[in-house]
């Protein structure tokens, strides 16, 4: 399927039956001989048509890999290279560790010092830290030794293993949740950045340029909004995958990139922040057709899945209004015959700097209904 809402196109006809029909018609036109289905000559033509269909599929695929709407994997990387837009590589998760100390006079936490969650996931300090005289603790940034999401999601206080003992250090623990670990940028996000890349050539600080550069900060950024609440002030609001609100680490990366003197016009003051969250409740009652009573368990599971997907869809874009009709359509497509939504009671307007997130979710099975 083509990206960016463009219509699908085929560069060559790949349908074996149409290729066969064209070859048979041409044979009969030239020879005046009608080919029956069992005719050996027709079987030979069918074999050629099949081989041509395979070749045409490869030709069509190759042609599409030169189009940004279809390109994938290494083909997409080559298009990005021509535009000067490399794919974002994997990153390691980070957090802030607190080193509790016995009273000391002089001490250094070396770069590369290791701490760990149990004996499973290891983190190292990213820079050497000089401990002030008499300090009872010092906070140090650490980074996971493995790139990707493996280091994400450890809550404060979960990373406590002092792998490399240091004199005078009595205890270590993380004071922030680990985050920022990502895999290679996926094809769709990468293609979207390539499409927006011409915006960066302007020196006037256009909205599209700030969006482009902000998206290079983290592969998890799925939406960016730009606001100017006052003259010369630029607010960059970012949203992460599945509606996750960015932490300060992500915001700092966005600000570092967009505040660079090669990106920011001299008169702009750039601010990066998380979106405002608007909460809403979901309360609905649904019914299943009596004719499908024998698969009611499957339908109930599909309805639950549809609601879960609606929740993710709703919070995956800034400024997306809360739309009960979208929820009803998804529940009915999952197999429900009727669906009554008590909450949200109607449309909830969401501005481009806001994101809607679910609060209380209640699904009620109302029973069987006549078709």
Summarize the structure.
The protein has 4 domains: 16-70; 92-174, Beta Barrel (Elongation Factor Tu (Ef-tu), domain 3); 197-274, Alpha-Beta Plaits, CATH 3.30.70; 277-369, no CATH class.
Main attributes?
371 residues, alpha+beta, Elongation Factor Tu (Ef-tu), domain 3, Alpha-Beta Plaits, 4 domains, six-stranded antiparallel β-sheet, three-stranded mixed β-sheet, 8 helices, 30% helix, extended
What does this structure look like?
The protein has 371 residues and is an alpha+beta fold. The protein has four domains: 16-70; 92-174, Beta Barrel (Elongation Factor Tu (Ef-tu), domain 3); 197-274, 2-Layer Sandwich (Alpha-Beta Plaits); 277-369, no CATH class. It contains eight helices and 14 strands. α1 packs across α2, α3 runs parallel beside α4 (187-196) and α7 (296-314) runs antiparallel to α8. The protein is extended. The mean pLDDT is 91.
């Amino acid at each position: 399927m083509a990206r960016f809402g463009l219509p699908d196109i085929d560069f060559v006809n790949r349908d074996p039956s149409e290729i066969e029909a064209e070859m048979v018609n041409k044979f009969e036109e030239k020879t005046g001989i009608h080919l029956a289905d069992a005719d050996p000559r027709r079987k030979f033509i069918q074999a050629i048509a099949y081989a041509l269909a395979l070749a045409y599929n490869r030709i069509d695929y190759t042609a599409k890999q030169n189009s940004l709407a279809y390109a994938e994997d290494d083909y997409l990387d080559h298009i990005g290279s021509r535009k000067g837009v490399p794919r974002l590589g994997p990153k390691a998760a980070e957090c802030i560790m607190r080193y509790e100390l016995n009273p000391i006079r002089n001490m250094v936490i070396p770069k590369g010092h290791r701490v760990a969650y149990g004996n499973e996931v290891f983190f190292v300090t990213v820079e050497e830290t000089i401990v002030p005289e008499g300090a009872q603790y010092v906070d140090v940034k650490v980074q996971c030794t493995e790139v990707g999401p493996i280091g994400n999601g450890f809550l404060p206080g979960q990373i406590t293993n002092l792998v490399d003992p240091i004199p005078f250090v009595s205890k270590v623990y993380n004071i922030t949740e680990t985050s920022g670990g990502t895999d290679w940028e996926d094809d769709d996000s990468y293609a979207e950045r390539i499409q927006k890349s011409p915006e960066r050539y302007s020196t006037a600080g256009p909205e599209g340029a700030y969006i482009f550069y902000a998206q290079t900060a983290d592969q998890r950024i799925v939406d960016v909004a730009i606001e100017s609440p006052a003259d010369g002030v630029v607010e960059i609001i970012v949203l992460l995958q599945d509606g996750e609100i960015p932490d300060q680490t992500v915001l700092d990366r966005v600000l570092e990139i967009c505040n660079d003197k090669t990106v920011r016009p001299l008169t702009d003051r750039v601010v990066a922040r998380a979106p405002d969250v608007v909460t809403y409740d979901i309360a609905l009652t649904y019914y299943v057709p009596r004719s499908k009573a024998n698969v009611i368990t499957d339908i109930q599971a599909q309805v639950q899945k549809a609601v879960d997907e609606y929740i993710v869809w709703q919070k995956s874009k800034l400024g997306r209004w809360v739309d009960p009709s979208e929820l009803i359509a998804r529940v009915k497509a999952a197999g429900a015959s009727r669906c009554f939504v008590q909450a949200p009671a109607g449309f909830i307007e969401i501005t481009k700097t806001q994101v809607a997130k679910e609060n209380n979710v209640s699904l009620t099975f109302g029973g069987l209904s006549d078709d």
